[in-house]
C-alpha cells in the first residue's frame, strides 16, 4: 500500500447491497496479481478471508495482520489485515478496502477515510461497500470507476414473530450483552439452545459457536451487529430484538442503512431471505421496511476525517496535528478518539513529561497510546496502564519479562462463569497486542506464542461455558418437566440426533432410535418416552420422504442388507421364489403400522425393480410362452440356477433338444458351452453380486460369500466356500484356481483344434486368455481332465532374418508363406525326403464369448498360416552361417514345457464333462464342427478324441491331391455341403440359389 496521494493504476468502486459477492470478487482480483493487500473491518472477517486464501495458495505466501495477531511468512505475497493494521508504504500491486461506507462511522470512520484518500495499488485499487458511498467517492477520488452489483437473492420483511415461533436457521440480533444472554436463555428452554456470536469473542470462540449453528446442533443464532460485516453464515431469517444501540457515547436509534446491513445477512447466494422483529422491538415502519427490501437509502454526505500527516516535535505539536481542522465539504473532523484522549491524559503526568526529550520519545508515546482499550474500563485506568508501559519502554527499551509474566499469569485461569472468562479474554488481548509489536519485548516469538496459547485456552473455556449454559440440558431438569406433565421441546436435527429440551438422547438411524447408554435404566426409560414424542411425527415425515426417494439412493449389501445412503433400513428374507425375495424393514414399533407398511412397500418396490433390471434376460426367457417342451425345462433350470447351470446336470435334456428349440433359447442369449449352459449378460459384476445374495438367501446360508473382484479371469479355488459358490460366481474350479466360465469356453474352442491323444503344448493365446503362468496353466488343465507332462529342452534362439533382395520388393511374412506353401509345387527332387509339414498347426483366432457361433455351411474359413510360436523340441535348428565356434560351444539355455493329453479321472479326480459324443455335436452346432479327414470327434466329457491320424501323404511327404491344382489348407473343419444350418438365413439362401442353378 502506497501512502502517497498519487493515483496509480486502475481505481474502481464495487458498490451494492449485501450478498452480491463483493468480497469474493476482491479476493479473485487480488490473486490475479503478484502481490496484494486487502483491508477488512473486523478481526473475525480477516481471519475468515485469510483461511480462504490459504486454502487456495498455501500458508507460505499469505500474511495475517491484526491488532492481536501477526502471521507473516518470509515469502509473503498477499496481506490480509484489519483496516487499522494495514502496512503503509509496502508498494503492493493490488489494494482493496472492504466496507468502505464505514468512512461515516463516528468511531473508526477517520481510518477508513484515510485509506480511501491514500491507499493505492500500483496496478489496481478496489473500494467495496454500499451504494450510498457513490457520491462521496466520485467527489474525493475523481478517477474512480464504478461497478454496481445486484443482490443474488431477494430480501422480504415478515413483521414480528415470537421467539418460540422463530423459523429454523434464524439469527436474533441484539445490541447488548444482557439482551443476548436473556434471548439465548429463552431459546434454551423453547428451542433446545442457541449459539452466541459477539464481536468481543476471539476468532477461536466465535468459530466454535458458529460451528454449533452450522452443523445443526442448534437452529438459532444469537448475535450482535458483528454479523453484519461480511461474515458468511447460513442464515435464512434475521430478527431484531432491539432497534437501539450504544455507540460509545450515547444510546441512539439504528440508521436504515445499518439495519439493512444486518438484515442482508439473511439469504445466502441465490436463496431468498427474510427479516423482521421479535421480543420487545417494535415493528418497522412500512417505508423503512420497503427501503430495506429495495436497498434505497439516503446517500452519505459526510465522511469522518483526521489528519494522518502528524508532527512529532513535541506532544503539543502532535496534538495540534491530530486536531487539525478540515475545509473539504465532504469531510468532517472526527471526534476525539480513545488514542487522543489517552495521549492527553498521559502527557499531563509530570513523570511522563520529564521523559519526553525529542521526537523519538513523542513517537514512542503515541505508539503506546494507540493500544486499544480491549478491557472497556474507565479512561483513567486505561491511561494508567499505558503510562506504565511507556515508562518501561522509555527507560528499559522493553517491557520486562518478569512483569509481563505476572500480568499474563493472573489471566491464565479457565475457571469462572461466562462474564469472568470474557473479561480475562479481553485482558489477554492487550498483552497479545503488546507482544505483536516489534522491539517491545525481548523474545518476541516466545511472548507471541505464550499470549496466543492463553487466548486459545480462555477461548475454549468460554465456548464450553456458553455451550453448557445455552445448549446443554441436564437430565434432572428434563425428568422434572416430564413429571410435571409439561410440554417438551423435542427436535431431530439434520444429523439424526434426537434432542429433548436441548439434551441429545440418541440418534435416529433410518426408522430406528438408538438411545445413548449414558443414562441410568430408570432415566433411559423416561428419556425414551420423551424421545418418542419427538420421533412419532418425525417418523411419518421421514416415511413420506423415504417413499419418494429414487432407487439410486438405495443399495443391497453382499449380506442382503438394504441401505438408504449409509443407514441400514432393512434386509432381504427368503421368499416363495428364488428371484422374489421379501423385503423386511427395520422400523421401531412406536412408529406405528402405517410407517412400517409404507417403508416395507417402498423397499419391496426397489428390490423387485433391481432384480428385474439385473436379470432381465433370464426373466424374459421365463416369460416367453413360445418356449415350450424340453426348451421350457431348460429355461426352468436356468431360472433355478439364476442364469447359470453346469452342463453335466442337464446333459440329457441338452442332447435331446432339436435345432428349433436350441435356436429359440439362443435368441434369449443362452449359450450352450462345453462345460456350462449360461447367459453371458448375467456374468457382469452387478448381476453376479446380486445373484450371490439371492442364492445365499435361497440356500439358507448364515453368511453370504462375497463376490469375486470384477475383471479377474481366474481366482483361487478355496475349499472352504460353500458348494455351488463358484458356479454362482460365474467360475468353474479347476485345480488350485477357478476360471471364469465364458473364458473357459473360449479356451475349450482352442483345445478342439489340438491333438489331445498325441499331446500338444500350450500356445501363447491359451496362456493369454487365462492370464496364468505356464505352471499355473498346467495345474488348471489338470483340473479340467488333462494330464500335463513336464519336460525340458534347449531353448532355440531366433535366427536372424536374411537381408531381403532389392528386387523384387519384400512382402509381409504371411503373404510370403501363402505363396510358397499354399500355391507352390513340391520339387520333384524332394520326393521321398523326410520334410516337415509346411503348415504348422495354429490356434484359431479368439472369438468373443457373446459372438454367435453359427457360420454358413458353405462359407470357407481360412486361417492364413503364420510362423509357429514355439519351435518343437525335435526340430533341428540351423546355426547361422556367421556363427563362431566359441558360440556353438556355449552351453544351451534350457526351457520348461508341458505336453497335455486328455486323461480324465473318473473316480475322485478331475471333472467329467458331457456324455460321449455331445461335445462334438455341440461344436458343430456352434459353427465349429469336426474336420473332414483330420477332424477331432470328441468323446466323453466333451474331450476331443484326437485327430484320428494325419492326412495320407504321398512321396516325399507331399499330401496327396485329387487334382493338379493348388490345395487350400484351412484351420476350420470342412462341413458337408448338403447340410444346411436351420438358424442361418444366409446358408438357406445360398442353398436355394444353388438348387435353381
How is the topology of this model organized?
Layout: E1 10-15, H1 22-31, E2 36-40, H2 43-57, E3 62-65, E4 70-71, E5 78-82, E6 94-97, H3 109-118, E7 124-129, H4 134-140, E8 145-148, E9 155-160, E10 170-173, H5 177-190, E11 195-197, H6 203-214, E12 220-223, E13 237-240, E14 244-246, E15 251-253, H7 256-263, E16 273-277, H8 286-294, E17 303-305, H9 315-322, E18 331-333, H10 338-347, H11 350-355, H12 359-369, H13 379-395, H14 401-411, H15 418-436, H16 444-470, H17 475-483, E19 490-492, E20 497-500, E21 503-509, E22 512-515, H18 521-547, E23 554-556, E24 561-564, E25 567-577, E26 580-585, H19 593-614, H20 616-623, H21 629-640, E27 644-646, H22 651-656, H23 659-667, E28 671-672, E29 676-678, H24 685-699, E30 714-716, H25 725-729, E31 731-734, E32 737-740, H26 741-751, H27 764-770, H28 774-783, E33 786-794, H29 813-822, H30 885-888, E34 894-902, H31 918-925, H32 985-996
Parallel strand pairs: 1-7, 1-8, 2-5, 2-6, 3-5, 6-7, 9-16, 10-12, 10-13, 11-12, 13-16, 17-18
Antiparallel strand pairs: 3-4, 14-15, 19-20, 20-21, 21-22, 23-24, 24-25, 25-26, 27-29, 28-29, 30-32, 31-32, 33-34
Helix pairs in contact: 6-16, 7-8, 10-13, 12-13, 14-15, 15-16, 17-18, 18-19, 20-21, 21-23
How would you portray this structure in words?
The protein has an eight-stranded mixed sheet with strand order 4-3-5-2-6-7-1-8, sandwiched between helices. It has 32 helices and 34 strands. By secondary structure, it is an alpha/beta fold.
Amino acid at each position: 500500500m502506497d501512502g502517497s496521494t498519487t493515483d496509480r493504476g486502475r481505481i474502481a468502486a464495487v458498490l451494492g447491497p449485501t450478498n452480491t459477492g463483493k468480497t469474493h470478487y476482491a479476493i479473485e482480483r487480488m490473486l490475479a496479481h503478484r502481490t496484494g493487500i486487502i483491508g477488512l473491518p473486523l478481526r473475525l472477517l480477516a481471519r475468515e478471508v485469510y483461511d480462504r486464501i490459504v486454502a487456495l495458495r498455501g500458508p507460505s505466501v499469505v500474511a495475517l495482520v491484526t491488532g492481536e495477531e501477526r502471521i507473516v511468512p518470509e515469502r509473503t505475497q498477499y496481506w490480509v489485515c484489519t483496516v487499522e493494521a494495514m502496512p503503509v508504504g509496502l508498494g503492493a500491486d493490488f489494494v482493496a478496502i472492504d466496507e468502505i461506507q464505514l468512512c461515516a462511522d463516528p468511531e473508526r470512520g477517520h481510518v477508513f477515510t484515510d485509506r480511501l484518500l491514500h491507499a493505492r495499488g500500483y496496478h489496481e485499487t478496489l473500494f467495496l461497500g454500499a451504494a450510498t458511498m457513490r457520491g462521496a467517492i466520485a467527489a474525493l477520488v475523481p478517477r474512480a470507476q464504478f461497478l454496481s452489483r445486484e443482490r443474488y437473492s431477494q430480501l422480504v420483511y415478515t413483521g414480528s414473530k415470537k421467539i418460540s415461533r422463530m423459523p429454523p436457521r434464524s439469527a436474533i440480533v441484539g445490541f447488548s450483552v444482557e439482551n443476548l444472554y436473556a434471548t439465548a436463555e429463552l431459546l434454551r428452554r423453547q428451542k433446545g439452545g442457541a449459539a452466541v456470536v459477539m464481536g468481543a469473542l476471539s476468532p477461536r470462540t466465535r468459530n466454535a459457536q458458529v460451528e454449533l449453528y452450522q452443523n445443526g446442533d442448534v437452529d438459532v443464532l444469537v448475535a450482535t451487529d458483528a454479523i453484519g460485516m461480511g461474515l458468511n453464515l447460513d442464515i435464512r431469517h434475521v430478527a431484531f430484538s432491539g432497534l437501539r444501540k450504544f455507540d460509545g457515547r450515547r444510546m441512539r436509534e439504528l440508521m436504515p442503512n445499518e439495519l439493512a446491513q444486518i438484515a442482508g445477512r439473511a439469504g445466502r447466494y441465490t436463496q431468498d431471505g427474510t427479516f423482521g422483529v421479535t421480543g420487545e422491538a417494535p415493528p418497522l415502519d412500512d417505508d423503512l421496511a420497503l427501503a430495506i427490501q429495495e436497498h434505497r437509502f439516503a446517500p452519505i454526505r459526510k465522511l469522518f476525517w483526521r489528519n494522518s500527516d502528524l508532527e512529532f516535535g513535541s506532544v503539543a505539536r502532535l496534538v495540534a496535528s491530530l486536531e487539525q481542522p478540515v475545509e473539504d465539504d465532504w469531510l468532517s473532523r472526527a471526534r476525539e478518539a480513545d488514542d487522543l484522549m489517552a495521549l492527553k491524559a498521559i502527557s499531563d503526568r509530570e513523570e511522563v513529561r520529564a521523559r519526553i526529550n525529542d521526537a523519538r520519545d513523542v513517537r514512542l508515546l503515541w505508539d503506546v497510546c494507540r493500544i486499544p482499550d480491549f478491557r472497556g474500563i474507565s479512561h483513567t485506568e486505561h491511561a494508567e496502564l499505558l503510562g506504565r508501559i511507556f515508562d518501561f519502554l522509555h527507560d528499559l527499551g522493553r517491557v520486562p519479562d518478569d512483569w509481563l509474566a505476572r500480568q499474563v499469569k493472573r489471566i491464565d485461569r479457565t475457571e469462572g462463569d461466562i462474564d469472568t472468562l470474557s473479561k480475562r479474554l479481553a485482558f489477554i488481548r492487550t498483552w497479545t497486542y503488546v507482544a505483536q509489536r516489534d522491539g517491545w519485548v525481548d523474545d518476541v516469538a516466545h511472548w507471541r506464542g505464550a499470549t496466543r496459547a492463553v487466548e486459545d485456552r480462555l477461548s475454549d473455556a468460554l465456548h464450553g461455558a456458553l455451550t453448557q449454559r445455552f445448549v446443554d440440558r441436564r437430565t434432572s431438569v428434563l425428568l422434572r418437566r416430564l413429571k410435571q406433565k409439561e410440554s417438551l421441546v423435542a427436535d431431530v436435527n439434520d444429523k439424526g440426533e434426537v434432542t429433548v429440551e436441548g439434551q441429545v438422547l440418541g440418534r435416529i438411524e433410518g426408522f430406528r432410535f438408538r438411545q445413548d447408554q449414558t443414562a441410568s435404566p430408570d432415566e433411559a426409560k423416561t428419556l425414551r418416552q420423551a424421545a418418542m414424542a419427538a420421533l412419532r411425527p418425525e417418523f411419518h415425515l421421514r416415511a413420506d420422504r423415504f417413499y419418494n426417494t429414487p432407487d439410486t439412493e438405495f443399495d443391497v449389501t453382499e449380506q442382503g442388507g438394504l441401505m438408504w445412503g449409509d443407514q441400514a433400513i432393512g434386509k432381504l428374507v427368503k421368499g416363495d421364489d428364488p428371484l422374489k425375495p421379501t423385503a423386511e424393514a427395520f422400523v421401531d414399533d412406536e412408529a406405528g403400522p402405517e410407517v412400517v407398511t409404507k417403508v416395507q412397500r417402498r423397499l419391496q418396490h426397489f428390490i423387485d425393480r433391481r432384480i428385474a433390471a439385473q436379470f432381465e434376460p433370464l426373466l424374459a426367457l421365463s416369460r416367453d410362452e413360445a418356449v415350450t417342451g424340453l426348451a421350457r425345462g431348460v429355461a426352468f433350470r436356468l431360472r433355478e440356477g439364476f442364469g447359470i447351470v453346469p452342463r453335466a446336470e442337464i446333459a440329457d435334456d441338452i442332447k435331446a433338444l432339436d435345432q428349433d428349440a436350441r435356436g429359440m433359447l439362443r435368441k434369449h442369449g443362452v449359450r450352450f458351452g462345453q462345460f456350462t449352459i449360461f447367459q453371458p449378460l448375467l456374468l457382469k459384476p452387478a448381476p453376479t453380486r446380486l445373484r450371490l445374495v439371492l442364492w445365499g438367501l435361497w440356500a439358507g446360508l448364515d453368511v453370504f460369500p462375497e463376490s469375486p473382484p470384477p475383471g479377474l479371469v481366474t481366482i483361487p479355488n478355496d475349499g472352504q466356500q460353500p458348494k455351488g459358490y463358484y458356479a454362482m460366481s460365474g467360475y468353474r474350479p479347476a485345480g488350485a484356481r477357478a476360471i471364469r466360465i465364458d473364458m473357459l469356453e473360449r479356451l475349450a474352442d482352442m483345445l478342439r483344434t489340438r491333438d489331445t491323444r498325441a499331446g500338444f503344448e500350450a500356445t501363447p493365446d491359451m496362456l493369454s486368455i487365462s492370464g496364468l503362468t505356464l505352471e499355473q496353466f498346467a495345474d488348471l488343465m489338470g483340473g479340467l481332465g488333462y494330464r500335463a507332462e513336464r519336460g525340458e529342452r534347449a531353448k532355440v534362439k531366433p535366427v536372424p532374418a536374411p537381408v531381403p533382395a532389392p528386387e523384387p520388393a519384400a512382402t509381409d511374412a504371411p503373404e510370403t508363406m501363402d505363396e510358397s506353401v499354399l500355391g507352390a509345387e513340391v520339387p520333384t527332387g524332394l520326393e521321398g525326403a523326410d520334410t516337415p509339414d509346411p503348415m504348422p498347426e495354429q490356434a484359431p483366432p479368439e472369438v468373443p464369448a457373446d459372438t454367435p457361433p453359427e457360420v454358413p455351411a458353405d462359407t470357407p474359413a481360412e486361417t492364413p498360416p503364420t510362423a509357429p510360436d514355439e519351435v518343437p523340441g525335435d526340430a533341428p535348428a540351423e546355426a547361422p552361417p556367421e556363427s563362431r565356434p566359441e558360440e556353438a560351444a556355449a552351453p544351451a539355455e534350457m526351457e520348461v514345457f508341458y505336453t497335455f493329453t486328455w486323461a480324465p479321472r473318473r473316480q475322485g479326480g478331475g471333472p467329467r464333462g458331457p456324455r460321449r459324443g455331445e461335445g462334438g455335436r455341440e461344436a458343430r452346432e456352434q459353427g465349429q464342427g469336426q474336420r473332414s479327414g483330420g477332424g477331432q470327434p470328441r468323446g466323453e466329457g466333451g474331450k476331443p478324441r484326437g485327430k484320428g491320424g494325419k492326412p495320407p501323404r504321398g512321396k516325399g511327404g507331399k499330401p496327396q491331391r485329387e487334382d493338379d491344382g493348388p490345395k487350400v489348407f484351412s484351420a476350420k473343419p470342412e462341413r458337408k455341403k448338403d447340410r444346411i444350418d436351420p438358424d442361418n438365413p444366409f446358408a438357406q439362401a445360398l442353398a436355394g440359389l444353388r438348387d435353381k442353378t
